[in-house]
Design goal:
CATH architecture of the largest domain: 2-Layer Sandwich
Radius of gyration: 28 Å
Strand order of the largest sheet: 1-5-6-11-10-9-7-8
Number of strands: 16
Length: about 425
């Protein structure tokens, strides 16, 4: 017997049943994907799918060479044929905008797009943080006004309510201003950090000159007082940035979306400007951020397109589903409607014909395979979670009938002509709380 090969650390199999150290199942995942597809359609966003592998330069240019994502966390390798540097995508916005620019999707006007898929970062695996993780992202491209910012935030709030987790998520909001305003603040922040360099940790000293805004996001408790007293970006915002930020807050108030202003919220990627936001929870331990995003007006131009107003967000599917499983109300349709069992010569063909008829009218059917006794099959029917059992035994074959049983006991057991079975099962499902 060969030695077992295990999955790569931090990359999880998604199984029909929960694992010891990974509780999410394929059934709950599928239910979430169905909910996301319907949710995006309600807001008139269209799906885009991009490759998992991109040229490394895409992420260096968009995310920022000095960010932790590019500098420490990406899976990067050389293509053996042409020595091109390739990377597994660590996030979805850059790939989405690369595709938009490459295929000139903005030629005929703005685009509202969404995507869902795996991302990769070489981080220390822990609950809610994995090396292969999944994101749902929304990108509103070609929109300069803050009503687009308000819409994408409202989309999040709508989804949280749909999933039954709205009360466990809080919105944090900030404004980063434009490039010139951020540059002025950055210069003042670097001077301030240099004055306090003696108390900075190694990570903050490294970031002080390369990405000083990220120092404000440090979780080191020793640095909190120093960070709280640092120059605040909002004090460097011009009249237009201040006005847009005020309008956004007014729109959120009109939508009854509560928020907390967090002047230290900067996000971890270089491409953000003006609006930034995060949805956080206190129910997942250290992994507080479930969803984050903001405006990135310069990214399309950075990737070779024309200057374009853009705003979007991405949510971590694993973290979100952990929250939904514990506190939410996402219904998984894993169990079949009907468990069809049979026994006796000629029963297989009859059972398969009936299964096809039931599936054609929208019923989910688990057809038993094998030669077990009806008693053993009934035990499996009970264990399957099916609502109804359909039985074709020797007596049913002789009389051209079928026996239907409600496994909850509410509707009892009935034997009838086979031609009546499809209609009755449809009626049972529709009128007895199954839909």
């Amino acid at each position: 017997m060969g030695q077992k090969i295990q999955a790569v650390k931090g990359m999880n199999d998604l199984l029909p049943v929960a694992q010891k150290d990974f509780k999410l199942t394929a059934d709950i995942w599928q239910a979430f994907e169905d909910a996301i597809t319907a949710w995006a359609r309600r807001f008139a966003y269209r799906q885009i799918r991009t490759p998992i592998v991109e040229q490394t330069g895409l992420f260096v240019r968009s995310i920022g060479e000095e960010t932790d994502v590019v500098g420490k966390e990406m899976y990067t390798f050389s293509d053996s044929n042409d020595a091109l540097s390739l990377s597994l995508r660590p996030e979805g916005t850059a790939s989405c905008l690369r595709a938009v620019v490459e295929h000139n999707l903005l030629y005929n006007g703005p685009q509202k797009l969404w995507y869902m898929g795996p991302m990769f970062r070489r981080e220390r695996p822990q609950k809610g943080r994995y090396r292969q993780f999944h994101q749902v992202g929304v990108e509103a491209l070609g929109f300069d006004s803050v009503d687009a910012d308000a819409e994408v935030i409202a989309m999040c709030a709508d989804l949280w309510q749909q999933l039954g987790i709205g009360e466990h998520l809080a919105l944090e909001l900030n404004c980063l201003g434009n490039r010139e305003e951020r540059a002025a603040h950055r210069a003042a922040l670097v001077v301030y950090l240099q004055q306090n360099e003696a108390i900075l940790d190694d990570d903050s000293r490294r970031r002080m000159h390369t990405n000083p805004l990220r120092v404000l996001d440090t979780k080191n408790p020793v640095l909190q007082d120093m960070v709280n007293a640092a120059p605040k970006l909002i004090d460097y915002l011009g009249e237009t940035s201040q006005s847009n930020y005020t309008e956004l807050k007014s729109l959120l108030a009109a939508l009854d979306i509560e928020y907390t202003e967090n002047p230290r919220l900067v996000r971890g990627l270089d491409y953000y400007n003006h609006t930034v936001f995060e949805w956080t929870t206190d129910k997942l331990g250290a992994q507080a951020t479930v969803c984050g995003g903001g405006r990135y007006d310069g990214l399309v131009e950075e990737l070779g397109g024309k200057s374009t107003g853009c705003v979007g967000f991405a949510m971590g599917v694993e973290r979100l589903l952990l929250l939904v499983q514990e506190y939410g109300c996402l219904k998984s349709e894993a169990a079949p409607d009907v468990y069809l069992m049979r026994q006796g010569n000629g029963s297989t063909a009859v059972a398969m014909q009936l299964s096809e008829q039931l599936r054609r009218v929208g019923l989910s059917v688990y057809q038993h395979c094998g030669t077990q006794s009806l008693k053993a099959q009934m035990k499996k029917a009970d264990a399957s979670g099916a609502r109804f059992a359909a039985i074709i035994g020797d007596d049913e074959l002789t009389n051209n009938t079928i026996t239907l049983k409600d496994l909850t006991g509410q509707l009892g057991q009935h034997t009838m002509p086979q031609s009546d079975a499809v209609h009755l099962l449809q009626q049972w499902k529709t009128t007895n709380g199954c839909e």
